[in-house]
Design goal:
The chain has a domain of 57 residues. Helix content is 0%, strand content 28%. It contains no helices and six strands. Strands 1-2-3-4 form a four-stranded antiparallel sheet, with no helix packed on it. Strands 5-6 form a two-stranded antiparallel sheet. The protein is globular and about 35 Å long.
Length: 86
Amino acid sequence: MDATGKVVWKVSNEDFEGTLFQDPCGAQRLPNGNTVIASYGAKEGIKLFELTPEKEMVWKYEGVNRVHHFQVLTTNGETLKGTPLK
């Protein structure tokens, strides 16, 4: 959403085959415009992933651990600018 509350980008399971989102509980927009999203409800399959603004998957984590909270602090070895989220 922008500062006025207008929706400027959204993504949902309707944008993908299968059920990518299972209880999404966190997202972070990166400086390059991509978005990292956690899918906490996923007991199997994708639990953390990054999407481009065009909704293309950049990478995904499908390990054994579920992901609830996360914060991307660096990309390509460069510290992200701004105050860390709390």
